[in-house]
Amino acid sequence: MLQFLTRRLLMLLPVVIGILLITFIIVRAIPGDPCDVMLGERATPAKCEAFMERFGLNDNYFVQFGRYLVNMGKGDFGDSIRFTRPVVDIIAERLPMTFELTFCAMIFSTTVGVLLGIISAIKRNSIVDTITMVIANIGISMPVFWLGLMLAYVFALLLRDTPFFIPPSARFSAGVSLTPLLKFWNIQDPTGFQKFIVSFLSNFSLINAIVTGNWKPFWDGLWHLILPSVAVGTIPLAVIARMTRSSLLEVLGLDYVRTARAKGLRERIVVLKHAMRNAMIPIVTIIGIETGSLLSGAVLTETVFSLPGVGTMLVQSILARDYPVVQGFTLVVAIIFVLVNLIVDASYAYLDPRIRLE
User: Contact, 148 vs 231, CB < 8 A?
Assistant: First the structure.
C-alpha cells in the first residue's frame, strides 16, 4: 500500500506540470488583451506597455512559464492582475465555500442515492423500482440552474411565511458573522504558510463556528447550504442511484449470495453485509468522480445562490484575462482531483481484499 501511494504521489508532479502548461497555453490563446480588458477606454499604448511590464506579460511565453514554475516551487502563485492581491489569498477565501458546498452535496447525494439504489435493486421490476428509476432519470435530466431557481422559488417565495422557509442566497443571514481565528487564537502578525492556513480555516464557516464554539453561524450557514446542496447534488444522486442498482443486481445473482440465503441469513444481512461490499467498487468510483467534478466549481449553482466559490471566480478571471488566478485555481483543483482519485483507488483494497494495489 505504501509503495502504491508513493508511486502515485510521484506521478502527480508530471501531471501538475502538464496541466499547468495546457492551462498556460489555453488562457493566452483566448482573444483579447489583459490591458484592454482591465483599462478599457483608458488603454493607451503607453499605459498598456507599462501594464504589461508590471505583470511580466511582455516577455515571451517560455520565460513567463519558466518564471511561474520557479515561483510556484517557492509557494508563490503570483498576484492577481484584477485585484492586485496574492493569488493564495484569493484561494484561501474562495476554496472553503466550494469545499463546504461539495461536502454537503455529496453527503446528500450519496446517502439518498445509495438508499434508492438498494431499494430499487431489492424490489426489482416492481412499482417501487419503476418509481425510483423514474425519479433518478428526472434528476439527471434537470438543468442545475433551473432546479436551483425552482427550489428558491418554492422554499423562499411560496413558503416564505411558513416553517419550511429556506433562504435562497448568500452564506449567512443579515447580522450573522464568524469570529476571526486570528483573534480567537491570539496570533500576532502571521506570515507565509501560517497566514494561509489560518485564513483558509477562517473561511470555512462550519469549521470556524465549531472551533470557536459560536453555534449560531454554524446552524445559519448549514441552513443556507440546504438549497444549493440539493440543487448541485441532484445529478450525482441520480447517477449514484442508477449505479448502485445495476451493481447490486449483478452481485445479488452470484452463487455466494444464494448460499448466504440458503443458510437462513436475514435478507438485510445478505444485502448489506455480503452483497453491498462487493458492489461498492463501481459506486465508490462514481462518488469519487462526482466529488472531483463538484470541487472544480459548481458555476451555475454558485451564481444562482450568490455563493463566493471557485466556479464564479474562475469564470470572472477567464473573462478578465486574469492569468495568475486562472492558473492558481486550476492547479489547486487538479491536485485535489488527483488526490480524490488516489483515495478512491486506495479504498479498493479495503473493499475487496482480493485486490492488491502493489
Answer: yes
- In order of 16, 109, 112, 144, 280, the CA distances from 337 in angstroms are 11, 19, 23, 21, 20
Residue type for position 121: A
Least trusted range by pLDDT, from 25-29, 90-94, 349-353: 349-353
CA 264/CA 54 separation, integer angstroms: 76
Do 310 and 333 touch, CB atoms closer than 8 A? yes
Give residue 108's pLDDT. Answer: 93
* CA dist., res. 242 & res. 343, Å (int): 23
pTM of the model: 0.84
CA dist 102 and 287 (Å) reads 11
Task: Report the mean per-residue pLDDT for the chain.
Answer: 82
Amino acid identity for residue 65 in this structure: F
Do 304 and 232 form a contact (C-beta atoms < 8 A)? no
DSSP letter for 296, please. T
Give the DSSP H/E element, type plus range, for residue 131. helix 127-141
Task: Give the pLDDT band (50/70/90) at residue 273.
Answer: confident
Q: List CB contacts of 156: < 8 A, sequence separation 6 or more.
A: 165, 166, 167, 168, 227
Average pLDDT of the residues in 326-341: 83
Provide the 3-class DSSP secondary structure of residue 103.
helix
C-alpha span between 328 and 334 (Å, rounded): 10
Cell of 141: 435530466
Q: For the residues of 213-272, what is the DSSP string, one character each?
A: T-HHHHHHHHHHTHHHHHHHHHHHHHHHHHHHHHHHHHHHTSHHHHHHHHTT--HHHIII
What pLDDT digit, counting tens, does each position of 205-231 carry? 888 888 888 888 888 888 988 999 998
